[in-house]
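Lecture notes, part 5. Sequence design as translation. It can be helpful to think of inverse folding as translation between two languages: the language of shapes and the language of residues. The source text, in structure tokens, appears below.
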């Protein structure tokens, strides 16, 4: 007896491939970083007006003008430590710290379209931050002022005065700030070729950071024409921060 066995066409199981985490259109951690970066960008906007407002506070100009010798600086630190730190670039340090998550969030937003150049801009920015922090004189002078105040004899005080003189004579390096501004200029160029940020945002960053680089190279400290360059660069840079912060907060899903 011959029995035919019917062959049933059983469909092969379909293996559903899951996208790799790097290919997911919306990564939760990047979205969260975009919110943080947008917030810190908006906070950075208020630093320039704060700098101007502090300059007009009663007694600030007199105290600032009286810091001629190292002992004057030590006395200013002991009586008005925040003002002394501000005069040695405290607000610039705060601004640089605020931009750390912002630049990283901007890289996250640009990485799908211009990953290589966005990474280059972010790396240059982080190197600039490191150089600027290494060259800052604000907190080392604060420490010296406290050691000077705690010294028990003239010999010890003379030692701290000599250390302070050497620190002020060496000066606070501006190379880190120049590198930070160049990095932001590169990031703005990348924005110009992307669809994530508007052309206005990119142009504001290009103009603001270019003017600030010119200021660092040719007009420090700013006087005369340098004041105009500083005002133009500062306003354009503030607009850049504001537009970046607004975009990152409003469109965090793009990150």
């Amino acid at each position: 007896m011959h029995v035919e066995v019917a062959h049933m066409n059983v469909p092969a199981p379909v293996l559903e491939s899951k996208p790799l985490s790097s290919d997911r259109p919306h990564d939760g951690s990047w979205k969260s970083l975009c919110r943080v970066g947008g917030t810190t960008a908006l906070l950075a906007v208020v630093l320039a007006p704060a700098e101007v407002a502090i300059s007009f506070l009663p007694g600030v100009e007199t105290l600032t003008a009286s810091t001629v010798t190292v002992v004057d600086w030590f006395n200013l630190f002991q009586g008005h430590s925040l003002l002394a730190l501000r005069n040695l670039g405290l607000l610039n340090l705060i601004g640089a710290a605020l931009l750390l998550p912002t630049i990283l969030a901007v890289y996250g937003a640009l990485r799908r379209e211009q990953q290589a150049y966005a990474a280059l801009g972010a790396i240059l920015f982080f190197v600039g931050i490191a150089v600027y922090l290494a060259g800052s004189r604000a907190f080392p002078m604060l420490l010296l002022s406290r050691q000077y105040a705690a010294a028990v004899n003239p010999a010890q005080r003379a030692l701290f005065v000599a250390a302070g003189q050497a620190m002020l004579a060496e000066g606070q390096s501006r190379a880190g700030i120049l590198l930070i501004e160049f990095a932001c200029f590169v990031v703005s160029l990348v924005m110009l070729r992307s669809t994530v940020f508007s052309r206005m945002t990119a142009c504001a960053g290009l103009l603001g950071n270019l003017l600030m680089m010119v200021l660092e190279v040719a007009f420090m400290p700013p006087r005369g024409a340098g004041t105009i360059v500083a005002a133009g660069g500062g306003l354009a840079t503030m607009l850049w921060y504001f537009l970046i912060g607004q975009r990152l907060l409003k469109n965090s899903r793009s990150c």
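The translated text above is only one of many valid answers, since several sequences can fold into similar shapes. The chain has one domain: 28-52+63-248.
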